[in-house]
Amino acid sequence: QVQLVESGGGSVQVGASLRLSCAASGGVFSFLSMGWVRQAPGKEREFVGGIRWNGDVTPYGDSVKGRFTISRDSGKSTVYLQMTNLRPEDTAVYYCAAVMQGVVPTTPTEYTYWGQGTQVTVSS
Question: Measured between alpha carbons, how far is 91 from 80 in angstroms, rounded to an integer?
Fold first, then answer.
């Protein structure tokens, strides 16, 4: 059973940066496609971006393109989401998700494993 644990959320001002981490355990990390999904209050879950087992990054969601970067450290079984130039509309719970396949899903419902989420709040 794959377990995902996110960390790194917090409350920041507009324009700040944060780096979220997602540590995976219980599975073969190298076979996992990983994604970041966020959910703002009253809204549906939104795909942010993902990364394949070989490090290939999927196209980012339009709302974060150019500001967010995903990377992974296979040696640490960890995926990162570097967020820069944060805006109030980035306020959400950010989830790390994974699926044991070669293609990174862009639809949140296609993921099998989920972390507990970490809150990111951006204030002006």
Answer: 18
- The answer to whether the beta carbons of residues 94 and 4 sit under 8 Å apart is no
Asked whether 98 and 105 are in contact (CB, 8 A), the reply is no
Q: Which helix (H) or strand (E) holds 71?
A: strand 68-73
Q: Bridge-partner residues for 24, per DSSP?
A: 4
What is the Cα 53 distance to its own chain's centre? 15
Q: What is the distance between the alpha carbons of residues 36 and 70, in angstroms, rounded to a whole number?
A: 9
Q: Each residue's pLDDT tens digit in the chain (124 positions)? A: 899 999 999 999 999 999 999 999 887 777 789 999 999 999 999 999 999 988 888 888 889 999 999 999 988 999 999 999 999 999 999 999 999 988 899 999 999 999 999 999 999 9
Whole-number Å distance between alpha carbons of 93 and 74 = 25
Q: CA–CA separation, 21 vs 56, rounded Å?
A: 18
Whether the Cβ atoms of residue 26 and residue 1 lie closer than 8 Å to each other: yes
